[in-house]
Amino acid sequence: MGSVIQLKNKVNNAYLDLKNSVDDKIILVEEKIKNRLISDVSLVEKMTNYNLDTGGKKLRAMLTLSSSKLCGYLKGGRDINLAACVELIHAATLMHDDVLDNGEIRRGKKTINSIWGNHASILVGDYLLSRCFEMMVEDGNLEVLKLLSMTSAKIAQGEVLQLQHKSEIDTVEETYLEIITSKTAALFSAACKVGAILGNKDEKVKEALSSYGKNLGVTFQIADDTLDYNSDLKKFGKTIGKDFYEGKITLPIIILNQQCKSGERDMVKEFFSKKERTENDLKYTLDLIKKYDVIKQCYKKADHFISLASNSLNIFESSEQKNILKNLTSFSIERSF
Fold this sequence. Notes:
This protein has helices spanning 2-21, 23-36, 42-53, 59-70, 78-101, 112-116, 118-139, 142-164, 173-198, 203-227, 242-246, 251-259, 262-273, 279-291, 294-312, 320-334, and strands at residues 105-106, 109-110. The protein is an all-alpha fold. It has one domain: Farnesyl Diphosphate Synthase (Orthogonal Bundle), CATH 1.10.600. The longest helix has 26 residues, at 173-198.
């Protein structure tokens, strides 16, 4: 138990190193977001304030700040402004996600839709996106505007693709990767590429950081989906089975479907065909996941994307910021939160 906790702490330190390296600016990002979300409509004000109070890792904003630092952008506040944009896109998509998933809890607190309803959540999510685009226009860089606009479109398409394949346990890995690349990795990729644009770097550097972010994002989402079925993490207080209850088909279920026996496969398929799944359904599925060592296989597949992310940084000379970003690949797959 002690060695597991030590590993957890070591891995999570990679995130803390990133946070500490941009700590002075992440505070300014939070202030920028707060100021931009001020509204004369009292309900909008209440909902956005509640959203800000729920916190979050601010990982995507930190990636924008860290990539900018890596690329030599040191003076001015464009990195703060665009990190805020990235964070607003992420916050808006989470609001829309919770509506689609009928989510009730996020980051240990009630979701906005469970308090104020789906209609208000969708509209306030749209309000966040509107404010974000306002800030992007003010930045004045057409390349950034095009990048973040295209990224927002990709995220929306990823959501629709996931909805299209909801509860289909015979979904292939290729489709799953397409979904998470659009839904999650696209914003990671854009966050990192923004740093190269601010640093006036050439296309090779822009593509290197874009590739780093994309593969980091894929790894991050595989880890997130795998954590949802990793019953060993109950000791850390991790809630298990959220995706299962929502009927989402993620990598653990795809791998399980490939490997379990026909009778077992039929049972799991039946679970996902139901409108609601029970605790016993989850227990049966978790037992199968353990039986076929699915968790280990998921992490093994993620190792490929860790290597791609890490290798993308080889174009940069050695520096503290490069090491921080490289170490972050371990956090993305081995984190417990």
